[in-house]
Amino acid sequence: MDMSMGGMDMSMGNMSMGNGIPSLFTFERMYWAVVGAAVAAFTLVNLYSWCLYQQRLRSTSMTPAKPKAFPFRAMATCTAVVREVANASLPVFAIKSLRIPSPTLGRASIVGANIVVLLVMCFYKLDVSDQWSFENIGYRTGFVTLCQLPLLFLLAGKRNIIAALIGSSYERINWLHRWASRCFLLTATIHMGYWFADWAPYDYIGTKVRTDPITKHGVIAWSILVWITVSSMTPIRGWSYEFFVAQHIVSFAVFIGFVYLHIPVEVKHWVWICVGLFFFDRVVRGFFYLYNNLSILHPAQRKDGTMGKLWALNAELTALPNNTTRVTINNPPISWRPGQHVFLSAHSLAPMQAHPFTISSLPSDGKMEFLIQSQKGGTQKFYRHAERIGMSLPRTNGDLTRGSFTSVAIEGPYGRIRPLQQFDSVVLLAGSSGATYTMPLLRDLVHSWKAMSGQSKSQREKPVTRHVRYVWIVKSGPQLSWFSTQLGQVMEDVARLQNEGHDVSVDISAYITCDDTFTTEQKTLLDAWRSYSTSSSAKHGSVTEVLNSVDDEKYNDYKSEKKFVSKDEKIEVQELDRYSLSEKAEPTSKQSCGPNGTCCCTATIEDEDDDEAIRPACTCNCGAGPSRTESSASSNLNEKPKPKQPFLHPAISVFSGRPACRNVIRKTLEQAYGESAVVVCGPQGLVDDVRTSVVSLSDERAVHKGTGAQGIWLHAEAFGY
């Protein structure tokens, strides 16, 4: 990279190269005009979405999420087309067993447009094959490359200005930061390549690199940029995120230093802009970090005794099934919105580490709660510490038993999602710990319904949502204990609202992919509880069908019964924790019958209402006989004692296998009166399946194209950094 070679004075940045070619500085301003126009366009879309949200909540129509006036119908049609194209995925690249994921058309279009703009500016009115134009191209590409540098810093910050304007958050535009960096590397390589091509006929490249400091600094800067780009790719980034962050910051600092030495005085302001953006982000983050964690700034919580003298936050760590740790911060000093996350650090357990975790509770709970699956590094240390504490320490509300609480710090909250109360119907799909994202969204919707039931008719705002479909996919039954209490409370709240005459509904299904014995036990407990209640002349009726391993006779008897749970009857649900489940048959790799210890449960439940849906789809104990738990329950049933409570609320469907996401979403869309939202959080495979299903259904149903089918908004959160 060299922008001052060939004896040309860099003050030429303000000069034209003739033939009506703008000056080099003009190209820099033109690029930022394009970037500014793009940000402004997305900002207007965000503003329109906010106005639409406010209009729907204040509407007196029976179907506020359905556009009626022609301008709104036209806008809905355009939106549906753009969403369908933007969410469509390019074909997956496969090299033997290696599968390279492809981006969506929306992302590919943004990156492609940026590349086109950059290449046009690099070569506008210049002859790329003319040897005598190589020097001019070298200067032009150098200026165009340098002006991109602030964009990388704008897209990288946690307190992200661009994200705030367009209604997003830093983690959702981080992919754009990475691709902008690759575009930066592209133009930097072109810049260096044309200078080398200019010197090559004279065999002058080696001499120039050895003797000229400016050339040497440019080559070093380019080499560091290559390392930064390569080390930011998913395999290296996922291998050790802490190492990636540390080397990334150090590498960029060194890179900026060599760029500063390489460029002339007239354009050094681009470097200072980057330095200013970096420290602005750090100062703002530091301010909020101190506010979150210094107890002196929160006198109310400090007076309650839930904080230390200096450090504000103490967290309780509890071990849960499936190597999961529940971290609970009581009476937190900050508020947050459902779906947001914070960076959590516990330096006494994992020094110098801060990991992003989704907040699985609501502010109204009076606590900030996280569910953290143990992987390696810091999360493993959390789990081991929780295991050591165990259940041996006495727990009372507000009792900070020595050793049971750990000092922690939080940074955030971060994250943003459109308010779901503006949609007629909502589909929430979660894979494993993705429920920490979707569960607060579900509970927030139910809370908004409860708040609506207590409002007077004169109050203007009310949630639009009528129906919520919630699907949770887990490997083993004990994982359901993470939110069994919350799920049961949701069903009871909805039943109470329905009794009051509110037109709201929630359907919840749990899919267990590697623990067929759990569904059998759940069915046995429900049958035993129903039999006990009937003999006691209690009101009872239908429990939602569950998939279970029973013989055909029991299966037919079960299917022939019509049962309804009385809406005013409170259902007790058995509390599951790590210790109560320690004796149960929790699936492990030894019980799995797939290759390399993987699970063989690959059957897909196409239709939950089909009779075949409740037959056993698979088993992971490789033909083992009936579980000990089932025989024990049967024995208790014969003796007619009061049986154990079921693990889940009876209105929650439990299936063994995997859901057909397309069919789940389709059923919700078919009953929707207005725009619907589909939110998914989980492994990349689940996210891709849901995205493909949404695009396919939008095209199949001809959304907002004269068929009456209403719009679909998709929000996807995949695991990973």
UniProtKB/TrEMBL annotation:
Gene3D superfamilies: Nucleotide-binding domain of ferredoxin-NADP reductase (FNR) module (3.40.50.80), Translation factors (2.40.30.10). Residues 625-644 are annotated as: Disordered. Its EC number is 1.16.1.9. Residues 628-638 have a biased composition (Polar residues). It is found in: Cell membrane. GO terms for cellular component: plasma membrane. One of its GO terms (molecular function) is ferric-chelate reductase (NADPH) activity. Its main location: membrane. Keywords: Cell membrane, Electron transport, Glycoprotein, Ion transport, Membrane, Oxidoreductase, Transmembrane, Transmembrane helix, Transport. GO terms for biological process: copper ion import; intracellular iron ion homeostasis; iron ion transport. InterPro entries: FAD-bd_8 (IPR013112), FAD-bd_FR_type (IPR017927), Fe3_Rdtase_TM_dom (IPR013130), Fe_red_NAD-bd_6 (IPR013121), Ferric/Cupric_Reductase (IPR051410), FNR_nucleotide-bd (IPR039261), Riboflavin_synthase-like_b-brl (IPR017938). It is a multi-pass membrane protein. The chain crosses the membrane at residues 30-53, 105-126, 138-158, 217-236, 243-263, 269-291. It catalyses: 2 a Fe(II)-siderophore + NADP(+) + H(+) = 2 a Fe(III)-siderophore + NADPH. Residues 300-420 form the FAD-binding FR-type domain. Belongs to the ferric reductase (FRE) family. This is ferric-chelate reductase (NADPH).
